Amino acid sequence: MTALSERKKILLVAATTGYQTRMFADAAERAGVDLVLATDRCHVLEDPWGDQALAIKFDDPVLDYAGLLDGIIAVGDKPSYVAAQIAASRGLRFHSPDAVAGSHNKFLARERFRDARLLVPEFYQIAVSEQPAGARFYPCVLKPLGLSASRGVIRANDDIEFAAAFRRIRVLLEREELNEAIQVERFIAGREFALEGVMDGGRLEAIALFDKPDPLDGPFFEETIYVTPSREPVSIQAAIFETAERAVQALGLSDGPVHAEMRVNSEGVWMLEVAARPIGGLCAKAIAGLEEFLLRRAAREPVAPPTPNGASGVMMIPIPREGVYVETLGVENAAGVPGITAVIITAKQGHKIVPLPEGASYLGFIFARADTPAEAEQALRSAHRELQFEILGVLPVL
């Protein structure tokens, strides 16, 4: 892609400076876009990260920027809502605040999917202060309404498992200082997928459809491998896209990136959730050219989505157990597996790491490119087998 003929200013709203922010900054240079960064940093410190970002309070998003903006984009769930508020106040094209809020709330999203006559499991919510004896049906899945990335999501098959899961989620919400309800849904069996797309004037355009080849049946739902293009028949892929389009329209999402997740079984396509943002963190590296494409779209350039060459995949390296991270052995061997393009360990030495459902991060990421999706998946699994993780146990506090 060549640089834009006229330089545009695009506002990027992000939680903090991180991998994805730097990826957008690099893409802006390639596209000839002036990127204006706004993050939830302390407004008293003067440019602590040296990135000239604007300080903005996410709970009161007033942007102290007098210049003209040609577009807006956000990375992360909270930043997408802030971006929606800023866009509404400045007349920029983006998802509406109501649509983004609906996509972030699992109960509201389920209601809107049901009203749009999509396949929806039985669901209801319980106040976190209650003491329920059990669920109305089994197997079920308990979900905090506002947390993302499968945090606090637990499957229960009977009253004993339900009570234990409810207590565990309550502790997590108390730790996060969140006083919200817990949603209970009937478990949906089936194969899981993720659709990366962009909305333009209420129309969904697909960028990539990822298979999730590892079964996600619980009791926790830690994602590991994404591979694209999908190996599903054309008819299934078409059904996934059609259902995703109905879902984003039911939520009212209209302009900007979307990341949708769904399950497919003999009954059809079941939407799990839709986020008003691009795929998170370093996983975006699995779609070459994604950031530049999204910036150009935010600048209203009619550019086509990036076209993949062969297959690509990413493994989000799971945390095997809670403890203090020391090191990862075998990285060089893993990087040398045919098809592997990068092994990036993001865990920091000496830091405590926590697996799902309480944890909110991974040990790192493995990336692969190959001629076929099967070869990309196999490369990821082979590379992961080369890694050994040294994690010290945490002594209990007496």
Describe the model.
By secondary structure, the protein is of the alpha+beta class. Among the domains are: 9-102, Rossmann fold, CATH 3.40.50.20; 122-186, Dna Ligase, domain 1, CATH 3.30.1490; 309-398, Alpha-Beta Complex (Aldehyde Oxidoreductase, domain 3). The chain is 27% helix and 28% strand. The chain has nine helices and 19 strands. It has helices spanning 19-31, 77-90, 97-104, 106-115, 159-175, 234-251, 290-298, 331-335, 373-385; strands at residues 9-14, 34-39, 54-55, 71-75, 123-126, 140-144, 154-156, 182-186, 191-200, 203-212, 225-228, 256-265, 268-275, 311-317, 323-329, 340-345, 352-353, 364-370, 388-392. It has a four-stranded parallel beta sheet, sandwiched between helices. Strands 5-8-6-7 form a four-stranded antiparallel beta sheet, sandwiched between helices. A four-stranded antiparallel beta sheet has the order 10-9-12-13. Strand 9 and strand 10 (203-212) form a beta hairpin. The longest helix has 18 residues, at 234-251. 41% of the residues are buried. Mean pLDDT is 91; it is low at 42-50.
Question: What's the topology here?
Answer:
Blueprint (H helix, E strand, L loop, with lengths): L8 E6 L4 H13 L2 E6 L14 E2 L15 E5 L1 H14 L6 H8 L1 H10 L7 E4 L13 E5 L9 E3 L2 H17 L6 E5 L4 E10 L2 E10 L12 E4 L5 H18 L4 E10 L2 E8 L14 H9 L12 E7 L5 E7 L1 H5 L4 E6 L6 E2 L10 E7 L2 H13 L2 E5 L6
Parallel strand pairs: 1-2, 1-4, 2-3
Antiparallel strand pairs: 5-8, 6-7, 6-8, 9-10, 9-12, 11-14, 12-13, 14-18, 15-17, 15-19, 16-18
Quick tags:
single chain, 398 residues, alpha+beta, Rossmann fold, Dna Ligase, domain 1, Aldehyde Oxidoreductase, domain 3, 4-stranded parallel beta sheet, 4-stranded antiparallel beta sheet, 9 helices, 19 strands
